[in-house]
Amino acid sequence: MKIKLLAASVLSLSFLVSTTTLAQTAPDYDALIKQAHQKYKNNNDGKVADYIPALATYSPQNFAITIATVDGKIYQTGDVKKAFPMESLSKVFTMALAMEQHGPKEVLDKLGANATGLPFNSGLAVELTKGAPENPLVNAGAMSTVSLVEAKDKTDRWNKILNNLNAWADASLTVNEPVFKSEMDTNQHNQALAQLMESYNSFYGDTREAVEIYTRQCSVDVTTEQLAKMGAVLANNGKSPYTGKQLLNEKYVPQVLAEMAIAGLYDGSGKWLYTVGLPAKSGVGGGMVAVVPGKYAIAVYSPPLDSAGNSVRAQQTIEYVAQATQSNLFLAK
Ligand code: GLN
């Protein structure tokens, strides 16, 4: 009897040990992203953005996935060599720069942290709040963020913004000139938003300069690997797992992630948080990044967008991987 009991407790102990080890084993990221690629590559829902004419030239078939972990590992599949313009993804990193310079209180006071519930370039949203952009991730707030960056002059402002993007991506990023030109030729709406905010004193510099630099930062090309590495800085408390540099004060990281949770997918942000439970950001070039604090960032590129301007396959892929890795932030861990 005693022996049986002993055997049973040894057995349950070894079960406990093996389940604990299992729980600690890293998920098979490589298998997961390949499964997601296979599962969603033939989903042709959504439409490639064409309100910026140069974006309409990108193939709807492009599809790439990269996971970058806080311990510096990279897993990727698909068209990972294809670069794409960051567009609104750039807003996150310039917001982080402004926060690093001015601190979270000033970002909250001057740029806000509320959802607009309206499209990313809504003029009505600015009008309803008498110029408060509500958050730094809609166009109005992002242009206001550019104007808030501390700089000596226009060249210095651009250099600070580009150097910041480079540091986060661990790369020398370049501006996609045809995209920049195309967007400069068609950005009257953004100019109007900037002037509307200026009329309410919610702009902190020259509107022309800020709109041009904002447009330039949106035209910076990245690959999913570079974007995932940028996200991994946020997952790793503001320190790049690749260069070891602290790029954002560790204390400010939760505020950056909160802004992403509030407005990263524009008027699709609430549904995204409800469904997936992760801070994320999209861009109309088809890129998207989501951050799992302490673990990994996932970047996906696929140009066809839903009606709010978020990549369809990117949302599906991230949801798939997040569910398989039980990454929803609202789950008790
Ligand atoms: N550059 C684009 C614009 O200003 C960015 C929009 C986006 O990616 N949602 O319209």
UniProtKB/TrEMBL annotation:
Residues 1-23 form the signal peptide. Substrate binds at S88, N139, E183, N190, Y214, Y266, V284. Its EC number is 3.5.1.2. Keywords: Acetylation, Hydrolase, Signal. InterPro entries: Beta-lactam/transpept-like, Glutaminase. It catalyses: L-glutamine + H2O = L-glutamate + NH4(+). It comes from the Bacteria. It holds the Pfam family Glutaminase. One of its GO terms (molecular function) is glutaminase activity. It is an enzyme of class 3 (hydrolase). Homotetramer. Belongs to the glutaminase family. This is Glutaminase. It comes from Buttiauxella ferragutiae ATCC 51602. The lineage of its organism: Bacteria, Pseudomonadati, Pseudomonadota, Gammaproteobacteria, Enterobacterales.
